[in-house]
Amino acid sequence: MQIFGNFLLQEMSDDMSATNTEIADEQQLLTACRNGDTHAFEQLVLRYQRGLYNVAFRISGNEADAAEIVQETFLAAWRKIKAFRGEARLSTWLTSIAVNQARTRWQQNRQKRSREESLDASAEEKQGAPLQIASEQPSALELLERSVLRGLLERCIRALDQGFREVLVLRDMREMPYDEMGQVLGLREGTVKSRLFRAREAVRDCVTKGMAQP
Amino acid sequence: MKSHEELRSMLPAMAGGDLSKTELALLEQHLAECRECRAELAELQLVLQAMRETPELEPPPWLATRIMAQVREEAASRTGWFARLFLPLQIKLPLEALALVMICATVWYVVQDVERSQQRPQIPPAADAPAAAPAREADRVSEAETPHATVPVTPPSLAVAPKAEPPSSAAQVRPEAQRTQAAPPPQKVPEPVEQMERAKSASESVPAPSAVSREQRAGSPLPSADRAMAAKRKAESSGSAAGVTGMQPQRLRLVVDDQTTIAETLEVIVPRLGGTILERRTGSARVRIPEDRLPELVEQLARSGRIAERPVMDTTGDKMLELLIIWQVVK
Q: Which of A49-53, A58-62, B6-10 has maximum average pLDDT?
């Protein structure tokens, strides 16, 4: 037992020192970037491009837009790197830039996009509908194949309003803490939570509805 | 006690594990009784699980390269003026030093040239400007007709006529030139003066090749440089005689041995002849003198040196005329 305890402490201390090294390394890279070192910035690009690309893809809904968003994000970060004082985590700062870029792009493409039924509207419609009586048997949703469910889910997330999609992607797909979400989206924690719960419900409704359609 | 709807609205939070312990206990109590909520919670949990298990996408391999290309482009355009001017030092610094030396050398040369030109005696610009030739052409014609023109000039020639001369002016010049050639030969310029004039004309005026060939065809006995100088001088003197008196002073050119002597001589002679010295410079003086006393002045100055250029003398009037006396020291 004593040996296991020591091992656990050793593991924790290793993890912490690794994190500290990473932070110190990131600080060095940031300092170098502020002095115009593009090689240092390249290290940051390689470190964060994957996460940002996924956030951008989930929010924008297509790969071309996601690549553009990530590119614009890093370019904007390079321009403003001297203004970044390190009060937030670098990943949070980069994500907030990416979300803003996605919003701008979304507004620009708004006219071009095909109209998809708003999940909010469907939720309103559903208010008057009789509640489904659930049985103890596994639901249709539970019986659905994973790949089919994933496809349906992506369609439903894409059909969400921009604000709902942002919170859902950041929390349920990127597992971002609420305080960071507040910083990224410029919202209070309470607003983030209420928006997130509504988004979850809307997605569930959409998936259930999608299954009902042939 | 919360209602079914209120408790149901807490299900999305519960599915994500976002409820406090109190809320969780309350909802679990309700779930034990409500089958509908249990089913909805199961669906929510399934959806959330599916979302969390969504595989991450790999960004395209070219993305980082493209980003960095843009960043480097931006960084290059943001480079400061110092770096743009001087970096890399081993290439730009020697080139800039060389350029600086060349600029300094040019400035030094220009300053020296300006100083040299300021030391020379000033000559009225109209006298030397070749662009004034067409205007002077008409004057030359009228001067050739003037009977009392006693200035020692060689016969006028078309050699100095500018190429761009208007046809009407050329038509006027030709008969005049013939008439002058028919007139008795003018007084010849003394030999030493002529030699000096020749040397001067070689440096000041070179007739155009076409003009030279025209001259040669006309069979003129004089060298072209002499004829050009003579015509120029005549044009200048006629310019002052033909109605522009007062605007353009007459000119008298002297070759002297001592510069101070001639200056002192002028100080004495000019007031004695009833004139005034208007302006005195190194190597020249502008005087005003009665027209009828001009020959006397010329005669007295001739004692101080050789006269290289004489003014047009009109002793009939009693007006005051302006005379520019230029002297050159022969060492």
A: A49-53
Closest CA to B108 of B98, B96, B100, B118: B100
Residue-level pLDDT at B131: 45
Angle between helices A178-185 and A90-109 (to 10 degrees): 50
User: Distance between CA B119 and CA B115 in Å, rounded?
Assistant: 6
Residue A117: predicted pLDDT: 52
Residues B89, B82 contacting (CB under 8 angstroms): no
Return the bridge partners of B250, or none: B323
Q: Does B60 touch chain A (CB under 8 A)?
A: yes
How many angstroms separate the CA atoms of B109 and B117, rounded?
12
Query: Which residue in chain A has the smallest CA separation from B13?
Result: A197
- Residue A211 CB contacts under 8 Å (≥ 6 apart), including other chains: A140, A141, A144, A152
B191 in contact with A, Cβ within 8 Å: no
**Residue B15 backbone zone (phi > 0: left; psi -120 to 50: alpha; other: beta):** alpha
Q: For residue A128, what is the DSSP state?
A: T
Could you report the per-residue pLDDT of A104-116, keeping only the tens digit for each?
888 887 766 555 5
Q: What is the mean pLDDT of residues A156-162?
A: 90
- The per-residue pLDDT for B168 is 45
Q: Distance (Å, rounded) from C-alpha A206 to C-alpha A162?
A: 16
Which of B43, B48, B70 comes nearest A71 by C-beta? B70
In this prediction, the residues of chain B whose per-residue pLDDT falls under 50 are 125-190, 192-193, 199-222, 237-246
Residue A2 Cα, gap to closest chain B Cα (Å): 33
Cα angle: B126, vertex B128, B132; to 5 degrees? 55
Which chain A residue is nearest to residue B65, measuring alpha carbons? A42
In this prediction the ipTM stands at 0.74
CA of A46: which chain B residue's CA is closest? B64
- Give tens-digit pLDDT for B312-328: 876 666 788 888 999 88
For B42, the closest of A139, A172, A197 (CB atoms) is A139
A14-18, A150-154, B247-251: the lowest-pLDDT one: A14-18
End-to-end CA distance of chain A: 58
The contacts of residue B146 (CB under 8 Å, 6+ apart) are B238, B241, B242
Asked if the model's pLDDT at residue A200 lies above 80, the reply is yes
Is A38–B54 a contact, with Cβ atoms under 8 angstroms apart?
Answer: no
CB A99 within 8 A of CB A72: no
Kindly write down the DSSP assignment for every residue of B141-202, as one continuous string.
Answer: HHHHH-TT--S--PPP-GGGS-TT--HHHHHHHHHHHHHHHHSPPPPPPPHHHHHHHHHHHH
Q: Is pLDDT above 60 for A136?
A: no
Residue found under tokens 């493209």: B66
B51 and chain A in contact, CB less than 8 A: yes
Are B325 and B301 spatial neighbours (Cβ–Cβ below 8 Å)? yes
Q: What is the pTM assigned to this prediction? A: 0.48
Measured between CA atoms, the residue of chain B closest to residue A146 is: B50
Residue A56: which of A1, A6, A97, A108 has the closest Cα? A97
